[in-house]
Amino acid sequence: MLAHYQILNYHSVSREDRVDSNMLVHYQILDYYSVSREDRVDSNMLAHFEMLDYHSVSREDGVDYNMLTHLQILDYQSIIREERVDSNMLAHYQILNYHSISRKDRLDSNMLAHYQILNYHSISQ
Fold first, then answer.
1. pTM for the full model?
2. CA dist., res. 24 & res. 34, Å (int)
3. Which helix H or strand E contains 23, and what residues bound it?
4. What are phi and psi of 80, to 5 degrees?
5. What is the C-alpha separation between 39 and 35, in angstroms, rounded?
6. pLDDT at residue 3, rounded to an integer
7. Distance of CA 33 to CAs 17, 49, 112, 117, 121, Å?
8. Which domain holds residue 79?
9. Largest interatomic CA distance in the chain
10. Quick one: residue 10, left, alpha or beta (phi over 0 = left, psi -120 to 50 = alpha)?
């Protein structure tokens, strides 16, 4: 499902803000406002969409790599600084791999070879 939609702005994830309801109307995206509290995504949503389970992002659990084969990547370098994602990028890319945000790890080089992945160099900054 992620391959068919663009992603909501996660600039406020670390502050547990809710995603704009208008965006939820335009994109069938789960509300990740509580990711930093490790809450689970609504199971009914997971049943309807092949969404990754981000409840454990803050615990550094891995994302299902089978999903990654369907996704394009967006640059979340500034999530940890609560900056907004560039709106132009949101128009061109779809959502990605959150498995290493809390550890600020770089993406696997094999992934970089296969996907349209933006620069993660500043995740570690």
1. 0.12
2. 15
3. helix 21-26
4. -65, -15
5. 6
6. 30
7. 5, 18, 28, 24, 25
8. 2-124
9. 37
10. alpha
Q: Which two tokens stand for residue 30?
A: 């789960």
**Euclidean distance between CA atoms 10 and 85, whole angstroms:** 7
Residues shown for the chain: 125
Domain count across the chain: 1
Residue 84's pLDDT is what?
Answer: 36
Q: How far apart are alpha carbons 39 and 16 in whole angstroms?
A: 11
Rounded Cα–Cα distance for residues 6 and 120 (Å): 19
Quick check: 73 and 56 in contact, CB under 8 A? no
**In this predicted structure, what is the pLDDT of residue 81?**
29
Q: Which tokens is 67 given?
A: 């999903």
Which pLDDT does position 12 carry in this prediction?
31
In the chain (125 residues long), the average pLDDT of successive 10-residue segments reads 34 34 34 34 34 32 35 32 35 34 36 35 32
